[in-house]
Structure formats: structure tokens, C-alpha cells
Amino acid sequence: MTALIRVLCLIGIVAWPGLLAAQEFPNRAIRFVVPFPAGGPADTISRIVTEKMSSILGQPIVIEARAGAGGMIGIGSVAKSDPNGYTIAIAPSSQLAMNVNLRDDMPFHPLKDLALITQIVSVPEILVVNENVPAKTLAELVALAKAEPGKLVFASTGHGGMPHMAMELLKLTAGIQLVHTPYTGAAPAVNDLLGGHVQMMFADVPVLLGNIQAGKLRALAIGSRTRIANLPNVATTAELGMPQVEADNWYGLVAPAATPQPVLAKLQSVAAEALRSAEVKDKLAAQSVIAVGNSSAEFSAYVKSEIERWGKVITASGIKIK
Hints:
It contains 11 helices and 10 strands. The chain is α/β, with parallel strands linked by helices. The chain starts with a helix and ends in a 5-residue tail after the last helix.
């Protein structure tokens, strides 16, 4: 009995600092890193979600834009931050699932150096062409690409992002050759698409929605499993005969890996509560963004499956970022 008491006391001594940290957390502002320029989809999503999280926690959440290298600089800085819960970030699929297989110079490993708290949102990818492209359907676009191999050019928001990888998946599935022109973000890519300098791109729906509705860009397919309410007449890739071309961008909430578990649990609980709220869900849905807010275990399993899925596409495509 004495030995058992000693063990229980030891467990209590070890667990007490983490429990105390969770009870006191947060007692000051939290820094929320957005690894992209202000005004983009990640920034918009972050502001909607953190406003509600801040209200629940009773402490300010200060957004800090730290852009560069497709999000790697910002997320890398978080991986190296003090693991106390006061530095967290919104991390894109590129940094959590793509770059592990694309880059040899990753300054962090998403499964080792980051705590995966929850998936914040899922964002459908949509395939569009500019007005000068004669293709009116996905089948016509594939036929055009096969008739003129290597002539059509697609834009992306950068090497290794979901818009890039979605198009690589389409190329593999359809057996077509396209030229890739990467940009430093969505705004310059869309500008050149509108100007006719490139012919097509996959991108997050919020990035393209306004120009589609204005008739400046032609939507050919949704990369999600289901159609979206804002564009009900645009069919999914599965409906158009290419179920393999499934591409939803997604963003997760992350912290440094060594952050105490009780603090991570509190952050997950608060984020999930915020994402369940009608006001947050409605604001996100207005932009065709789907709130998630799953458990840390579910999110970790999803990230692992995405690393494996997109790793196969990367290997088959033979692409690499050096």
C-alpha cells in the first residue's frame, strides 16, 4: 500500500505543473501566426475563428502575419517557439502534408515538431479557365490539352500548395501535359489569369468566387466530393468522370510539439466550440468554407493519411523543391 501511495504521489507531482498551467491558461494575450500575407484566405479564416475563440477565453488573440516560402517561415517559427500555448498558428495543407515529400530542406517535421490541435476548416478547390480558353467543360479542356500538349499554362499560388498539387493530380489522371507557372500568392496568380497570361488554375473557392459570379472566369469543376451552395451548377470532378481528382484545401491549428497536454486540450476545446457556433459557421459558409473542429487524434490521423495520399502523387509526378 505504501508503495502504491508513493507511485500516486509521484504521478501527482509530475502531472501537477501541466494541470496548473491549464487552469491558469491563458492569463495574457495569445499570438496567432498566419503564415501568409494579410488579406488572403488564411487571414480571413483566422480572423473569423480567433474573434470567437478570444471571446470564449476572455483574452485577446493577436494575429501576426509572417509570410514567406509558402508558409514554411511562419510555421517553422511556431515550431521553435516556447511551448507554452501562447504561440499558435493556422497551418496550411502544404506545410503539414505536402512538403514532407516535396522538400529536403524542411526546418521542421509536422508530426514531430508540431502539436496538431484540430483541423480548422476544409476549403473546396475549383478549376477555372479564363474567357479566352475555348473549352466550356472539363472534357473539352482535357481534349484541348491533348491536342496541344505542353502549350496550355496553369497558375498556382506557389510550389507545393494545394492548387499546384490539385493540377498535378488532374494531369496524372487525364494524361495531359501542362506548363506550371507558380506565383507568390493568390492575388498575382488571379491577376495574370484574368489578363490571359495563363489559361487556368485550381484555387480555393473564396479566391475565385467573385470573378466566377461576375462572369470573368469560367468554372469547370469542383474538386470536392459534393457541390457547393454558392455555385450549385458546377459539377464535381467525380460527377464528370474523374473521382480520383479530389482536392480540398485545409487548414489546421498547431502549436509547438512540447506544449503541455492540458493546454493543448483547452485550445482544442475552445477552437471546436468556436467552430460549432452558428455565427462562425455562417460566416465561413458564406465563402464556401466548411468548419471542422475535430479532435486532435482525428486531425493527426487525417494529416498522416494526407501525407501518404499526396506523397504518391508527388512521386508519380516526379516533382521536387530544392
